[in-house]
Batch of 3 targets.
Target 1
Amino acid sequence: MSEQVPTRAISAQAIMRSAAFVAGVEDVRNGRPPDYDAFTFNQGEEYLGAASKITAHWNYERGRQWASLAPRLMPLKIGAALNPKAVALFCAAAKRGYIAR
């Protein structure tokens, strides 16, 4: 079976730095319901625009998943940099299948 679209590897840090990931974390930590409509696209949309929204949707969900696993007081960032412990948790959870890859 072939894939629907070509995929490429991306680092945990790139995922976790994305605005969509941060939004997913903030929604869970603030008790807000999922905002999946923020990443909708239509079938007639040009490829790059749709692909960008699909990637953002995945990163948003990954942020929600990470926030559900992480201790509530674990900061995602320390200053402007990602918290190394948060990255390590993301990598361990993804390896175990707790966070979508």
Note: The chain has one domain: 19-95.
Target 2
Amino acid sequence: MRRSWFVLLLVCSAQFMVTLDVTVANVALPSIGRDLGFAIGDLQWVITPYVLLTGGFMLLGGRAADLLGRRAVFLGGLAVFTLASLASGLAGSPAVLVGARALQGVGAALLLPAALSILTTTYEGAQRTRALAAWGAIGSSGMAVGLLVGGLLTELVGWRGIFLINVPIGLAVLVVGAQTLGRGVAGRPSLRGLDGRGALLLVSGLVVALYAISEAQDEGWGSLVTLGGLAVAAALLAGFAASERAARNPLVPATLWRRRSLVSGTVVTAGATAIMVGAFFLNTLYLQDVLGMTALETGLAFLPVAIAVLAAAHVGSHLIGHLGSRAVLLIGLVAVGGAGLGLAFVPDHASYLADLLWAYVLLGFGAGLSFVGVSVGAMADVEHAEAGGASGLVTTGHEVGAALGVALLSAVATAGVTPGDLGALAAGYRSGFVVVVGLTVALVGVAAALMPTVRPPAGARMALH
């Protein structure tokens, strides 16, 4: 059974690398902006293309894993991700960096759902519950640790190091994965009839939606640009839905839409990720631009968040056996909402120890519980044959949520802010966390009404062998 331990370690290592890259660039944003000439309002595009392309093509990656084989798609996505990381680290202009980050997203879109489907089909019963809990914990801790790693690398070797570090790690996982993972493919490998048009419509709709939201900070939420862009995005996403219904081989099989736990879990995953990634974005700007911290100091300031996430993941994996996954999720969301409420009232020049630290710890602990609870609940009743499609749906929610969170909270926080106006930036920071509280309340309602309660069988061992 030693092989099972290697499979869990392998897929979680790959996921950690991908989710770390959602936030690792946050701390380096001011340095990247100065070096490559980004305007403050455009800095979100260092992050947005990565999470947008990851989320947009995740469904395609998930179905490809089912049809071509999880091992092949996992290794292919990892190779693309590693190559794009190299290109990001060597970028000499904003356009090259944005393009390389987009390519990273495509690689991640293949890699992540294949990894989750490998995990889901490798383990059964209580082992699957523990493995999914580990997956949720790694996802949330990767985002938090990314801020610390980003600060350390930016301070010690420069911002390019945050991307180049993926190259040796990616190559190592690629070699081990090629030797460790099985080659099984369900049925005859074929992409015939796969809804490629639907994938393009989905990506196009998300791009237009995010552009409209990002432009709202300059044009206004009631402007023709914003409202027109959102209308076009809605039409493109409706086209995606129509294409899926007509496709012989849809990205999301119709049976998956009837799984309430999976669909509601995807919604909660998207919302929780939007809150976490958006919160990291806001706090990075606040700590560096308002409080004057360096990149290294900012990374260290987020260390308690990472520790709290890991502690909560450990606690949550045990609480699920007693309270069930839904209760753990709800406790986590309430904690996240409490942290957001506290950050919505910080003064212009807050004290890290007195005003921010407690909220950071509560935010991290709540996130750790939330992601463990939703990961277990969403994938609990997924069959092996549909694991790739289901994994693609959940991971799409994760990455689309990250993109929407950065775009929305950036638009709210930087609306009308001019360089050097620290008072306006602090006020925007508080406004952003008012939005966070509202989103959290909505997620609590969705989770309470729609998410199932999942517990491991009574007396089952939770350890992986």
Note: Residues 180 and 370 are 31 Å apart (CA to CA).
Target 3
Amino acid sequence: MTDLRFAVIGAGFWAPFQIGGWREVKGAKCVAICDRTIAKAEKVAQDLSIPAVYENAEELLGREKLDFLDVITDGSTHCELVHMAARHRLPVICQKPMANTLADAENMVRVCREAGVPFFIHENWRWQSQIREVKKVLDSGEIGVPFRARIFLVSGFPVFTTEPSLMELEEYILKDLGTHLLDVGRFLFGEADSLYCQTDQIHKDIKGEDVATVMMRMGGRTTVTCYMGFPGNFLEKDVFTQTLIFVEGGKGSAELDRDYWVRVTTESGTRAKRYPPTYRPWMLPTYIASHASIARCNAHLLQALRGEGQAETTGEDNLKTMRLTFAAYESARTGSAIRFCKGAAAETQRRG
């Protein structure tokens, strides 16, 4: 099997982990890295033995023979770079959030569709093995029809020390962490029928919101509440970056608890099994819950790039998550609930 050649644009905090994830996957080879700050690209290239370095994306695409492009920059440049890939008829994978505005996200999907270019989003959260186990339980019908669920990731981890650029974002938690959790909600329960959101800012030295609570009616049957935030409070048992999930159904309950335990309770009793992530040297131990899903997501997208299956997190699919994200901002801003005409794929209507 011939390796697919790809380049990475973006040499910031996430790049070494994304490239590390690719190196766990057979059939793909990173041949170049590009960053507007050339010194950052040179450092990553040296550390990871990447042969070519660029500071201009157009120059990269003009010189390198590539099979796909992996965009790992901040959200402000995603639209420009995806449009560039479409002009070059080059399949492209983009980090979340897809774009900083809903209009940009819609245009990115449109130009790739019109150019016939595969467009995927690196939405790795749903690829965590413990979350996919919860999905299996729900799909089996063992706990009956889910009527209520909680998705929770609140932590005192000092994210602004690890990633200080997050402090400058005018819109933070919903775009950064929220896109993951809202996508998990869609993955587990289906599209949203309605949404209501409240946000807050606990850290006063940042620009955006660092806490959000989103309540949705999903799949026409399940009330789902997403709790997200890095308020800096001291929790007895911090879960960063673990996502906790509790689902109530007509026949029982399913829980993803701390330390990757999945518990299923029905009238027959409770069974429990742990699904811990596998550590690799390129991962940060504090980020292991999310880092361990990168390679699994990459392997899935590589199959789609080879025409060996359909990708879950296409641009078209992730546009539904982006519509939820921006609807949450509208709800928080206006104090109104949002109703979706035909699930999250449709235009929204405001209601009091």
Note: The mean pLDDT is 95.
